[in-house]
């Protein structure tokens, strides 16, 4: 019963994440979402400094497509060395690749224009949801999940999970700081990544139970 409840919980988290993403998409032009975006933007832009800009440029570069490929390949190698099964390696690849495809689909469905408040970098394409945020949540989320399963030392596992969380938050924040995404874009990206990650966890646990 307890295991079935956990499996059901992972599935519902995935479903709720998708619902949350769709809800945000429907209210992006409403006064409440505008107020949220403006408040967060005002706070983050208030942190502007030469050093902070360099830090945010670094994190946004780490979240670029090319770096996601590099990090994914390095992670696959390390996971393989840790004895990760073929199914889990394929699961890792599926989550990372599907996040890019899912984001592309959503951007072209909602077609939200990017903010125009003096961006510090150039960005093409539509704004919602943030691709950097979605791919970061998917990549570092599934990496943290698999590392948690394979790394036996509790302190090391906690350190890995903490680093993964910080990477996700830093990459998402960098997109707002640099002026190429609204905060609601970033939240939408996180929810999109969370839906894929939760679905992957549900699938993985089902397979382990059936084995």
From TrEMBL:
**Keywords for this protein:** Membrane, Transmembrane, Transmembrane helix
Q: Which residues form the Phosphatidic acid phosphatase type 2/haloperoxidase domain?
A: 89-201
Q: Name one Pfam family in it.
A: PAP2
Name the residues that span the membrane. Answer: 55-80, 89-106, 126-147, 159-180, 186-203
Which Gene3D superfamilies does the annotation name? Phosphatidic acid phosphatase type 2/haloperoxidase (1.20.144.10)
Query: In its UniProt entry, what is this protein called?
Result: Phosphatidic acid phosphatase type 2/haloperoxidase domain-containing protein
State the species of origin: Tumebacillus algifaecis
């Amino acid at each position: 019963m307890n295991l079935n409840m956990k499996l059901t919980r992972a599935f519902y988290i995935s479903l709720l994440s998708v619902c949350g993403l769709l809800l945000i998409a429907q209210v992006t032009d409403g006064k409440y979402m505008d107020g949220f975006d403006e408040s967060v933007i005002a706070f983050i832009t208030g942190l502007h400094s030469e050093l902070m800009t360099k830090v945010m440029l670094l994190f946004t570069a780490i979240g670029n497509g090319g770096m996601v490929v590099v990090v994914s390949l390095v992670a696959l190698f390390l996971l393989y060395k840790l004895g990760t099964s073929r199914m889990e390696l394929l699961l890792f690849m599926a989550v990372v690749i599907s996040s890019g495809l899912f984001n592309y689909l959503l951007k072209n469905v909602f077609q939200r224009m990017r903010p125009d408040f003096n961006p510090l970098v150039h960005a093409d394409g539509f704004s919602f949801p943030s691709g950097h945020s979605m791919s970061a949540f998917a990549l570092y989320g599934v990496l943290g999940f698999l590392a948690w399963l394979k790394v036996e030392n509790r302190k090391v596992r906690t350190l890995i999970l903490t680093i993964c969380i910080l990477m996700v938050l830093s990459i998402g924040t960098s997109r707002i700081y640099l002026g190429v995404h609204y905060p609601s874009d970033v939240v939408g990206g996180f929810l999109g990544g969370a839906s894929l990650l939760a679905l992957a966890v549900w699938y993985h646990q089902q397979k382990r139970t059936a084995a």
